[in-house]
Amino acid sequence: MPSRSPWTCVLWDVDGTIVDASVGILHRLTVTLEHFGLPAPTRDELVHWIGPPMYESFQVNVGMTPAQSTEAVAFYRSLSKQEGYTTGARVFEGVDTLIHDVAAAGIPQATASSKPEVQVVALMDHFDLSPAFTAIVGATQDEKTLSAKSDIIAEALRRLRASGVDTSRPVLIGDRHHDIDGGRIQGIPVVFVTWGFSWPHESEGAQAVVSDVDALRRLLLVEDADA
Q1: How, if at all, do strands 222-223 and 3-4 pair?
Q2: Distance of CA 86 to the CA centre of its chain
Q3: DSSP class of residue 166?
Q4: 3-21 burial code (b ≥16 CB/10 A, e <16)
Q5: What backbone torsions phi and psi does residue 11 show, to the nearest 5 degrees?
Q6: Cβ neighbour number for residue 129 with a 10 Å cutoff
Q7: Where are the beta strands (DSSP E) in the chain?
Q8: CB neighbours of 161 closer than 8 A, spacing ≥ 6?
Q9: Cβ-contact 205, 190 below 8 angstroms
């Protein structure tokens, strides 16, 4: 049965929402922090790292200065480039199918990720998701010029509009409070998914909270009985 959507476009966070890249992130963080004489994070501590820009996280989580954080980000990104941006990454089960189904229903989609855009493009290409997106948007390589979630959301909407997309009823799918904060600044409702890397309280302020892909599907697609 054909489907339609209550939304004119759908924006997606990537890390923790579409992709689980935690294996690679933990490895690169371990190498980076030990390189700078700092203790490696545990897997449980990844919740502090996945979501915000790395430039911010190195300062908040281990007390680096802005200059040190810039150096750490450059080192971390060099590891990513050497190892390959998709190494150890996987798509959360069923999310890729839902993205393709939303596209098949004619609903334009874009990523709105705090990961550097070159990495987002590589991941979407790797998982054969790029054709489902009208725009693939991420942070700039320095994670400073374009890094705030609200600015990335605004850029995703700008690119969608430039492609002729109706952005009057957008929705953002995300898994961290940064997504909710960015959505609020841009006046966009957020559907919070719990399968990512978050604390329970982070969903506060979301329009809806879902714990599985079927529940998310029901919010994004409605079967058109009249078709």
Answers
A1: antiparallel
A2: 14
A3: -
A4: bebebebbbbbbbbbbbbb
A5: -105, 140
A6: 23
A7: 3-4, 9-12, 19-20, 90-91, 109-111, 170-174, 190-193, 208-210, 222-223
A8: 167
A9: yes
Cα(212)–Cα(145) distance, integer angstroms: 34
Strand-pairing partners, residue 191, are 173, 208
Single-letter code of the amino acid located at 165: V
What gap in Å lies between CA 183 and CA 227, rounded to an integer? 33
The label of the residue with tokens 């190498």 reads 31
Tokens 């993205």 correspond to what residue? 99
DSSP secondary structure of 32-76: HHHHTT-PPPPGGGGGGTSSS-HHHHHHHHH---HHHHHHHHHHH
Among residues 174, 199, 164, 192, which one has the least CA distance to residue 14? 174
107: left (phi over 0), alpha (psi -120 to 50) or beta: beta
Q: What is the pTM of this model?
A: 0.88
pLDDT (tens place) for every residue of the chain, 227 residues total: 568 999 999 999 999 999 998 888 889 999 999 999 999 888 888 888 887 788 889 999 999 999 999 999 999 989 988 888 898 899 999 999 999 999 999 999 999 999 899 999 999 999 999 999 999 999 998 767 888 999 999 999 999 999 999 999 999 999 999 999 999 999 999 999 999 988 889 999 999 999 999 999 999 999 876 54
d(C-alpha 222, C-alpha 1), whole Å = 10
pLDDT tens figures, 38-55: 998 888 888 888 877 888
